[in-house]
Design a protein that fits this description.
The chain is an alpha/beta fold and 194 residues long. It has helices at residues 21-29, 62-70, 90-98, 109-118, 133-143, 148-162, 177-192; strands at residues 10-14, 36-38, 42-43, 58-59, 74-81, 84-89, 102-106, 123-129, 170-173. The relative contact order is 0.22.
């Protein structure tokens, strides 16, 4: 790790799919004073739509992902669905810290909590909560990116993820997006400047 510069902080955003965490993270990346750089996750799933390797995700084959797990190259990783891996490469965090920036993550609940356990003092773990499960289901349907079966699977997973919310440092309820963005900005700014 680079010892010349003050080590950056880790800002973790986790939430059930469809809660709005990605929208909040994108907003925060545009706030210059926060000095944030997005941590690009690695995944073994196929690209969706216009996703770009090295920008949206590092797309790896399942075999390559498993090899990196074996070589202890991940800060955290999880098999989200069968043979569908997601994780954060240690080199990604090192790359961002070397730029003198703070790392912002848009990752699943388990991964977020693992990072918090590994770096308790440097990490702010924020859970973005939908106003309700029904609202979440409506948001997922509006995306029109997945089948009803996949949506139902995500909604079932969301119930378990919502139970982990108290383990996070902060919970932001994304009922009104404008309010959630302001709350996120204020919370992250206070943590970075503390």
């Amino acid at each position: 790790m680079n010892t010349d510069k003050k080590q950056g902080k880790l800002i973790v955003f986790s939430a059930p799919s469809g809660s709005g965490k990605t929208t909040i993270v994108r907003h925060l990346l545009g706030v210059k004073d926060l000095d944030l750089e997005f941590s690009i996750s690695a995944t073994s799933r196929d690209k969706r739509g216009q996703e770009i390797d090295g920008k949206d995700y590092y797309f790896l084959t399942t075999e390559a992902f498993k090899s990196k797990i074996k070589n202890d190259e991940f800060l955290e990783w999880e098999e989200v669905y069968r043979d569908n891996f997601y994780g954060t490469l240690k080199t990604e965090v090192e790359r961002i810290w070397a730029l003198g920036k703070n790392v912002i993550f848009d990752i699943d609940v388990s991964g977020g909590l693992r990072i918090k356990r590994k770096y308790p003092d440097e990490t702010l773990a924020i859970f973005v909560k939908p106003p309700s499960i029904d609202a979440l289901k409506i948001r997922l349907k509006k995306r029109k990116t997945e089948s009803d079966d996949k949506i139902n699977m995500r909604v079932a997973k969301a119930s378990a993820e919502l139970a982990t919310a108290p383990l996070f440092d902060t919970i932001i309820v994304n009922d009104t997006l404008k309010q959630a963005l302001l709350e996120a900005e204020d919370t992250v700014s206070k943590f970075i400047n503390s």
